[in-house]
Design brief:
Helices cover about 75% and strands about 0% of the residues. The longest helix has about 50 residues, at about 330-375. The protein has 23 helices and no strands. The protein has helices spanning about 5-20, 25-40, 45-60, 65-70, 75-80, 85-100, 105-120, 125-145, 150-165, 175-195, 200-215, 225-240, 245-255, 265-280, 285-325, 330-375, 400-415, 430-435, 440-450, 455-470, 480-485, 495-505, 510-520.
């Protein structure tokens, strides 16, 4: 077969791969991988670049970020040879987004700067506006990963929408579809920022509705991956509004679409949404099903994460070696000395820190073991537990009779046994009313008999409860910190994390990680 016929057959195969890519990603990957190999065998540069570009996009949509980095090797030289600035800018954007998803933020922003340089050189006006809009979107995402500067994130989303508005609606059908697909996605991005970061729920719902109007309009062909992301976010949004029916509705729609679009990270979030929503509606069997699916998938993703990061670092090192080959020998000795010193100092710091943290972890485990043993063996209900005393600022005491103190202590014990401290609306007045005394008596008794302020008393009960629950019930270790905070009565994950660290001297995430590693049952 002559070269021209071979090139024509490769183009036909690439067309076939493109048609199946949206619904059958794995099949499309096989076809494009073959066209890449065939193109390399006959030095067909256009075929090589187009196959790499297509594979890069499919890998990214599948969450296979390490494969995006692998496939990007050699793209700049090839693109410049063909004067294909549009494709080069797009592939650099995919590469930057992959670095960002792997938390390699500096490398991501540097790669985006390259993408913007080449996007400005695109001659076709429509392609230039669209590619630039995509790059602005990526800047917003990378900034969010790096430092959560919400104002900058919103700025770049609006810059993206501004570029998209410059594209005429008289363009060909595929261009219009791409334009409105991205407009809908940017509306979703704004909704998510106003909801998650700015807590402006009414504004967020307006943008969610704008995105939904576009994504469910039959006149537009929208990427299934974007629809999945929108449905999943709507599920999360309505869960936060305690509209569990709507939360389940959108999560189920998202899960149905993932049969055509395989993205394990997104599927993990959907499982978590369904688990939480079904738990709130009292459907325990369905809640357990999705909790199990979430845990299995989460464990699988953790095993592959380190492998992905290693691939990324290898690629960065390879690129830097090419860029700096002429100057490497001049700085190698100094850099080696600095690296060794930093590594030694870092290792010493890390070792000491982890030794201290692990000792605190062991202290917590020992405390829980003692409590569990006491709960099994203690029969004498009159045995008074050892008083745990916090520092409490001294003030003038009020006189309370012994009989009143004993009555308050009995009611405090009943309060603790009933686990009423888990209610998120518990206050000193609530506790005083429960014990049928005034709040001064309640406060004074806590100070004198428990050695605690009201706030410390409640927080310690809550933290002891969730710590013991994590130790005794392994399924809770897979839940989000924000959910664990709700379980034990805290109003926010930040307050919970601070109270946990104050009580146990370690963070909740460190405690959970070590429980999982040690295999505590």
């Amino acid at each position: 077969m002559c070269t021209s016929q071979t090139r024509e057959s490769i183009r036909k195969e690439m067309d076939r791969a493109q048609k199946v890519s949206e619904q059958y990603a794995s099949q499309s990957i096989k076809i494009y991988s073959k066209t890449l190999k065939d193109s390399e065998n006959i030095s067909f540069d256009e075929g090589i670049l187009e196959s790499k570009d297509a594979l890069s996009k499919i890998y990214f949509n599948n969450g296979e970020y390490e494969n995006v980095i692998k496939i990007s090797s050699g793209i700049e030289e090839l693109s410049l040879k063909l004067n294909d600035y549009n494709r080069l800018a797009g592939m650099y954007r995919d590469l930057a987004a992959s670095y960002s998803m792997l938390r390699l933020n500096n490398q991501a922003l540097q790669t985006l700067d390259k993408a913007k340089i080449f996007a400005d050189k695109i001659v076709d006006q429509t392609k230039r506006h669209y590619t630039t809009a995509l790059i602005y979107d990526s800047y917003s995402v990378c900034i969010g990963q790096a430092n959560q500067d919400v104002k900058k994130m919103i700025y770049y989303v609006n810059k993206s929408l501004e570029e998209l508005s410059k594209i005429s609606d008289n363009e060909k059908r595929s261009t219009i579809d791409s334009k409105y697909d991205l407009i809908g996605f940017q509306y979703f991005r704004l909704a998510d920022l106003y909801y998650s970061e700015l807590k402006q729920n009414s504004t967020a719902e307006e943008y969610y509705q704008k995105a939904l109007n576009i994504y469910e309009d039959p006149k537009y062909t929208i990427l299934p991956s974007n629809v999945v992301i929108l449905y999943s976010s709507l599920s999360d949004f309505y869960y936060s509004q305690k509209n569990y029916t709507q939360s389940i509705f959108y999560a189920e729609k998202a899960l149905k679409l993932t049969r055509k679009y395989d993205h394990p990270e997104m599927r993990k979030d959907i499982y978590n949404n369904l688990f939480k929503a079904y738990l709130e509606t009292g459907e325990k069997e369905k809640s357990k099903l999705y909790a199990d699916l979430y845990t299995k998938l989460n464990d699988s993703l953790k095993r592959t994460e380190q492998k992905s990061i290693n691939t990324s670092v290898d690629k960065i090192i390879s690129d830097k070696e090419v860029e700096n080959r002429n100057t490497l020998n001049k700085v190698m000795v100094l850099a080696s000395i600095i690296c060794v010193v930093l590594l030694v100092l870092g290792w010493i710091f890390w070792k000491n820190k982890n030794k201290r943290l692990h000792q605190e972890y062991e202290n917590v485990i020992a405390k829980i073991s003692q409590l569990n043993a006491a709960a099994e063996t203690e029969k004498d209900s009159s045995a008074k537990p050892q008083k745990e005393v916090d520092f409490v600022e001294k003030e003038k005491k009020i006189q309370i009779s012994n009989s009143t103190v004993n009555s308050i202590l009995r009611k405090l014990e009943a309060f603790e046994n009933a686990e009423l401290f888990l209610k998120n609306n518990v206050s000193l007045n609530y506790l005083a009313n429960y014990m049928e005394v005034n709040h001064r008596y309640a406060s004074e008794t806590l100070k004198n008999e428990k050695g605690k302020t009201f706030s410390n008393y409640i927080n310690n009960l809550r933290i002891d409860y969730i710590t013991k629950l994590l130790y005794n019930e392994p399924k809770y270790r897979a839940y989000k910190i924000s959910y664990l905070a709700e379980v034990c009565g805290f109003s926010s994950r930040e307050v919970f994390a601070s109270a946990f660290k104050k009580r146990n001297k370690i963070s909740p995430s460190y405690f959970i990680e070590n429980l999982s590693v040690s295999g505590q049952k």
